[in-house]
């Protein structure tokens, strides 16, 4: 897409805020504090002589929590987005992409779904999740059909035969936004859904590694091989380092000078060149001097079949330093927590299980861990 075409389309989304020559994507539902934070960022002058010399690269700001949390805008442009589209199409062998979009345009995955369709001449159909879950299954032209779901959405659609038949029509069913637990992956494979597990983020214009559906159906459960436009390596500390043409130019107003970007995600590359992500370094729980990765505990709890959804956090504890706490949505059958924790190492077993009436997982599949900690600390009083 040319810049002018992209800007015209962004204006039509209803989520674009223009400040001079720059465009920022914003969530229309943000409250006053978040809007004020965004305006404070917009008011800052852009930094870096490189920007003046490069034809205003990084003019598009896509909201991100970054690796340290808090609102940031990752700077992209038509160059980074086009590179991501090229790599995506080459990796999956797609020519004209038709997509059903469930994610909002201010989210990088929602944005890129629309950009891929526009760049390849395909059809994009926006869809509301509640409508889809209620049986409103949109039709797409024949060809390269794709859809992106978060794990809980896939789980609910697998319970509906009509939805399963609909999902079988897609060339690729992307599942991301959170870990896919083994039982869910196996259920999708039994239905012969062409699932792709992937790795990417706002800063990389969505996926930079992805599992091809053929590999998924053959039993592979990693994040797959690196896409052609990207570089993914592992640092000496075990964190994922990303480079390539789709990498962002920095968080506005700053300019990111270095070529590669080191994330807080822990991972490794296997012998076949596939990326395996084990969790986040900044989410690690230190309890009794031992390290516990929440993602590993969550996977084990889910595999027990006792939880429809669960998230594990660490909370301050006078005896252990941090205590492992498992939170889950209230309602329904009470889980057998003893059975669920069977097989976990002593340091991994949650000290408490907290049922939450208001489950803080958003439409993009992200759980608000700060809200979980606040609820867990209140429950401990």
Indicate the topology.
Layout: H1 3-13, E1 16-19, E2 22-25, H2 32-42, H3 49-53, E3 60-64, E4 72-76, H4 78-92, E5 97-101, H5 108-120, E6 124-126, H6 129-133, E7 144-149, H7 151-157, H8 161-167, E8 172-175, H9 182-190, E9 195-201, E10 206-210, H10 213-217, E11 225-226, E12 230-234, E13 239-244, E14 261-269, E15 275-280, E16 285-287, E17 290-292, H11 294-303, E18 311-317, E19 321-329, H12 337-341, E20 352-356, H13 369-379
Parallel strand pairs: 2-3, 5-6, 5-7, 7-8, 8-9, 19-20
Antiparallel strand pairs: 1-2, 3-4, 9-10, 10-11, 12-13, 13-14, 14-15, 16-17, 18-19
Could you characterize what this model shows?
With 381 residues, the chain is an alpha/beta fold. 30% of the residues lie in helices and 27% in strands. Strands 6-5-7-8-9-10-11 form a 7-stranded mixed beta sheet. A 4-stranded mixed beta sheet has the order 1-2-3-4, sandwiched between helices. Strands 12-13-14-15 form a 4-stranded antiparallel beta sheet.
């Amino acid at each position: 897409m040319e810049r002018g075409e992209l800007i015209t389309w962004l204006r039509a989304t209803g989520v674009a805020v223009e400040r001079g020559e720059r465009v920022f994507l914003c969530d229309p539902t943000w409250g006053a504090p978040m809007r004020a934070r965004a305006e404070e960022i917009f008011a800052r002058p852009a930094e870096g002589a490189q920007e003046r010399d490069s034809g205003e690269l990084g003019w598009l700001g896509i909201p991100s929590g970054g690796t340290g949390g808090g609102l940031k805008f990752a700077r992209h442009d038509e160059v980074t987005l086009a590179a991501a589209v090229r790599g995506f199409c080459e990796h999956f062998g797609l020519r004209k992409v038709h997509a059903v979009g469930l994610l909002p345009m201010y989210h990088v995955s929602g944005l890129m779904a629309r950009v891929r369709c526009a760049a390849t001449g395909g059809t994009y159909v926006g869809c509301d999740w509640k409508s889809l879950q209620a049986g409103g299954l949109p039709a797409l032209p024949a060809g390269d059909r794709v859809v992106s779901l978060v794990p809980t959405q896939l789980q609910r659609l697998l319970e509906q035969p009509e939805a399963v038949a609909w999902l079988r029509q897609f060339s690729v069913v992307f599942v991301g936004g959170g870990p896919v637990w083994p039982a869910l992956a196996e259920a999708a494979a039994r239905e012969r859904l062409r699932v792709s597990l992937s790795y990417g983020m706002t800063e990389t214009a969505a996926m930079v590694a992805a599992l091809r559906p053929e590999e998924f159906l053959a039993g592979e459960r990693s994040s797959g091989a690196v896409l052609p436009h990207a570089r993914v390596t592992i640092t000496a500390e075990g964190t994922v380092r990303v480079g390539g043409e789709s990498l962002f130019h920095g968080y506005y107003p700053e300019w990111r000078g270095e070529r590669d970007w080191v994330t807080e995600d822990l991972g490794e590359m296997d012998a076949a060149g596939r990326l395996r992500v084990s969790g986040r370094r900044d989410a690690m729980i230190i309890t009794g001097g031992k390290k516990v990765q929440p993602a590993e505990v969550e996977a084990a709890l889910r595999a027990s079949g006792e939880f429809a959804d669960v998230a594990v956090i660490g909370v301050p504890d006078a005896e252990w330093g941090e205590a492992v706490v498992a939170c889950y949505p209230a309602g329904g059958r009470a889980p057998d927590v003893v059975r669920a924790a069977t097989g976990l190492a002593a340091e991994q077993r949650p000290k408490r299980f907290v049922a939450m009436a208001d489950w803080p997982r958003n439409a993009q599949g992200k759980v608000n861990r700060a809200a979980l900690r606040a609820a867990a600390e209140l429950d401990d009083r």
